[in-house]
Amino acid sequence: MSYRESHYPTIILILGLFFGFYYNLGSVALFNLDEGAFGEATREMIDSGNYLTTYLNGALRFDKPILIYWLQALSVHAFGLGEFALRLPSALSATMWVVVLYNFVKSHYDRELAFVSAFMMATTLQISIIAKASIADALLNLLIASSMFLFYRYYTHRTKLHLYLLFLFVALGVLTKGPVAILIPLAVSFIFLAIKGELEVWIKMVFNPIGILIFLAVAMPWYILEYLDQGERFIDGFFLKHNLDRFNTSLEGHSGSLFYFIPVVLIGLTPYTTLLIRAIRDIKLWFRDDLTLFLIVWFGFVFIFFSLSGTKLPHYVIYGYTPLFILMALSIDKIRSDVMLLLSPVILFVILLILPHIVPFAEPYIKKPFVKAMVSSGVDEFGWWWSIFFVLLIGLYLWMMKSDRLSRRYKMFAMGITTMITINGIVMPTYASITQEPIKEVALIAKERGYDIYLWEFNVPTFMVYREQLTHRERPSKGDIVVTKIDKLNNFGEYKMLYNKHGVVMAEIR
Q1: What is the dihedral of CA 159, 164, 165, 168, to 10 degrees?
Q2: Per residue in 230-259, pLDDT tens?
Q3: SS3 134
Q4: Which of 10, 194, 219, 498 is most buried, most CB within 10 Å of its CB?
Q5: Does residue 33 sit in helix, strand or coil?
Q6: Domains in the chain: how many in total?
Q7: Are residues 131 and 15 in the same domain?
Q8: If DSSP codes are grouped into helix, strand and coil, which group holds residue 472?
Q9: What pLDDT is recorded for position 256?
Q10: Same domain, 425 and 502
Q11: Residues 145 and 27 grouped into a single domain
Q12: Which residue intervals of 237-364 are DSSP H helices?
């Protein structure tokens, strides 16, 4: 039975989706800040019954539009408040994103390349992270990728249905994260058609009256209602601060150099980094056909635009990852050896193997007392099994590098699945047990005992999600119970310690 006729690739892709997007989905504590902020805003939405405007600890939150909150609220209503329900919309969105990629590649190349590119997307480090996070980015990437593929289908077939669906998905993207959902399809299609000398196609497409009506009918009602409800506060908070200022200035300290996204991409595409490097070597072939040109323009615009942006966050570049999976899939047979194919995850696993052993040496150089307390006590979370696991895993990869028993594609499949098991089954739970589990534990204790909590100089919205209650943020007084970082207790003189783990403390002020 040939590769194309075999059912094995389908089974392997399903395994990749499971270990990349669903494994331990509800078993790891929510991460601060973003997961906690989205989760708490959704919880407050359900608690208040206000499904128009989002709040965080009772204060207006204009960071993102409404669609992801609605989906998370629907999931919470179905499964109850918890990590699984809050993260499920992202996992489902990422799964649909993979399906969209698979269908596009299958129709423009073949089934084999579609499986390979889809599998790589499902088992790539940065994609897996956002697919398992209760934030807006998996949904947004699904909508951007769908919009971009619909544009190319419209360009090649000139079918009005593709154009109308394009406007629909852009509108849904605007309801998910705002103007960026318009910017990327608009700019990439303009650049691509300008290179092709067909800007009249772009003008007719953008100003299609039925498409504009579809966009307005889907995207505008919430924006209008929100403006009527909040007025200038909505304009200033959403459009000016969280959109325009993100490009013009470094918002909330998230800055970086022009080269910020180079290491982000190299690390984020683990375990397939060497395939990216090999694809880059074919730069002379990037203009060989319309589709390759379109894929390059798509990634290139995203990479350059956000490199020039004042605010830089690692997930911004993911908007341009979808075309890379196609280009990398085309490069598998061109890579020099299986050693090069498997090199990227081996380097990662070696670093993870030695990590618990080098942490104690790094401790004296850590200046922040809270981080030092977390590191010094958190190293105990690395059990004896950690070293054994990574030694065996590295041994497996060394065997695969030399063995001829598996084809290169099946080595790639093994690489993707073992990397996802490692990240989502070993690394992330351990990291969460050090950094996030103490916050969850202290929140549940406070909830169980009915404490009225003051959260002092500690921005951890997951605390409110787990406690299921708004929390004081002002300075506590004598008799109050405070949750804070261990070094912040020096501000209060005498106190009775109620909880202390990995630098997270709860105390009664005396």
Answers
A1: 170
A2: 887 777 767 665 556 555 555 555 556 788
A3: coil
A4: 219
A5: coil
A6: 3
A7: yes
A8: strand
A9: 64
A10: no
A11: yes
A12: 245-248, 261-268, 273-280, 290-308, 322-329, 338-362
